[in-house]
UniProtKB/TrEMBL annotation:
Keyword Cell inner membrane listed: no
GO terms, biological process: pseudouridine synthesis; tRNA processing
Organism: Thermosediminibacter litoriperuensis
One Pfam family of this chain: TruD
Highest taxon of the lineage: Bacteria
UniProt entry keywords in alphabetical sequence: Isomerase, tRNA processing
UniProt lineage: Bacteria, Bacillati, Bacillota, Clostridia, Thermosediminibacterales
InterPro entries the record matches: PsdUridine_synth_cat_dom_sf, PsdUridine_synth_TruD, PsdUridine_synth_TruD_CS, PsdUridine_synth_TruD_insert, TruD_catalytic
Name assigned to this protein: tRNA pseudouridine13 synthase
GO molecular function, one term: pseudouridine synthase activity
Residue ranges constituting the TRUD domain according to the UniProt record: 162-372
């Protein structure tokens, strides 16, 4: 297997706030400005004047979806649970997505870089069920002139052969180490360890004071009276107060149940996505000879450049289930790979039946192994206005719900 490594990281400077793809001989950049990464939801909404829900189009830059919805909820005195949405969109982008509220509510929201526009009434609320896909316009920058033909060729290969449908780094925002999944510790009933990770995981974007606070809590772990003054959120305080009462399995489970449902769901989704990715990673060598890797946040991503016709046909039909206590039937090679991944992590499907954690649960669904960008178009290469001496190109395409455009960019291997 050919192992050409490509590295990706977030640039710290103001203008270079986007992702950088590094390879020997040069680097390429995306998301330098929000307009370099445009996402528009494609939805199936049936509008009706007498509909029970108001539908709005949310346009934003420099905001992630959850923060925007929290502010909208607060300003309009609408419970967050009443606001329907189909998916979360990146902060480092210009995004358009739909949200809904019951008809009795009316939303207004004015903030820099956020615009809310009333679209109409509908008989149903916005949820992942109404999503048909996402349309993308992505500008690739800092392209060396000598690599233009290479990029054109690779885009043609992706159009013909698709690319592995990995969950991308965005799914693992709560995780800094592949051995430190909160969800995995919960599954293994290491409740104390899961809670410690919840309080003490240090993220690169944490400010110095926050990193110091987390280190102090880690050093004091178990001394709840001393930790309580260090707590900053009501949830942290509630958890520590429960632990002050006792540290039996019952108390530890109650402390975990104090974590908001949205956060627990995020932890569980991250772990499911990781296991799915590792399963696909094991399967790809069965279909492709020449592979290359891209280094991600907590794992490397494996890509192919082309596939023999028979292998392409087989891989195009292949679906991999996400893990839960009840995993749908799958192809023999998928079952084998998934069993190997679970064994390597020291877990089994029955462990995913979380009887003591009431707020969230694991649900299995089938996900295609590879994905094909539809309507893939690339503009003529132009002089890069931000990086003199380099070129830029805009690519446009549509992906099904749940597939990552950033993974498509990684798959270019440039």
């Amino acid at each position: 297997m050919k192992n050409d490594a490509i590295f990706i990281h977030q640039s710290p400077s103001c203008m270079d706030s986007g992702l950088i793809l590094y390879k020997e001989g040069g680097n390429l950049k995306i998301k330098v400005i929000p307009e370099d990464f445009i996402v528009k939801e494609l939805v199936n909404i049936k509008y009706a004047a007498g509909g029970r829900y108001r539908i709005y189009l949310l346009e934003k830059r420099h905001w992630n979806t959850m923060d925007a919805l929290k502010f909208i909820s607060r300003e309009n005195k609408v419970p967050l649970s009443k606001i329907g949405s189909g998916g979360r969109k990146d902060r480092h982008a210009l995004t358009y997505q739909y949200i809904s509220v019951p008809r009795e509510y009316e939303l207004q929201f004015e903030r820099p870089n956020v615009r809310l526009q009333f679209v109409g009434f509908a008989g149903d609320f916005v949820s992942p069920a109404v999503l048909e896909g996402n349309y993308f316009e992505i500008t690739l920058r800092r392209i060396e002139p000598g690599r233009v033909d290479e990029i054109r060729s690779r885009l043609s290969e992706v159009e013909a052969f698709g690319y592995p449908n990995f969950f991308d780094d965005q799914r693992f925002g709560s995780v800094e180490d592949p051995e430190e999944f909160i969800a995995e510790r919960i599954i293994k009933k290491h409740y104390n360890g899961a809670l410690k990770l919840y309080f003490t995981t240090i993220h690169p974007e944490d400010k110095r004071e926050e990193k110091e606070r987390k280190r102090k809590i880690a050093g004091l772990w178990g001394r709840w009276e001393e930790i309580l003054p260090l707590c900053r959120t009501p949830v942290e305080k509630d958890i520590v107060k429960i632990l002050q009462e006792g540290q039996s399995k019952k108390h530890l489970a109650a402390a975990l149940n104090a974590i908001p449902k949205e956060e627990l769901s995020m932890f569980f989704s991250a772990y499911q996505s990781f296991l799915w990715n590792k399963t696909l990673e094991k399967l790809l060598p069965l279909f492709a000879g020449e592979l290359f890797t891209v280094k991600g946040k907590i794992m490397d991503y494996t890509f192919y450049r082309a596939l023999p016709p028979g292998k392409l046909k087989a891989l195009r039909k292949l679906e991999i289930p996400t893990v839960s206590s009840r995993i749908p039937d799958a192809a023999p090679e998928v079952k084998k790979a998934l069993e190997e991944v679970l064994a390597e992590r020291g877990v089994k499907p029955s462990d995913f039946n979380l009887k003591k954690i009431r707020k969230s649960f694991f649900k299995s669904f089938m996900r295609p192994a590879i994905v094909f960008p539809q309507g893939l178009y690339s503009s003529p290469f132009e002089v890069d206005d931000l990086y003199p001496g380099y070129r830029k190109v805009k690519i446009k395409f549509t992906l099904p719900p749940g597939s990552f455009a950033t993974m498509m960019i990684k798959s270019l291997g440039i």
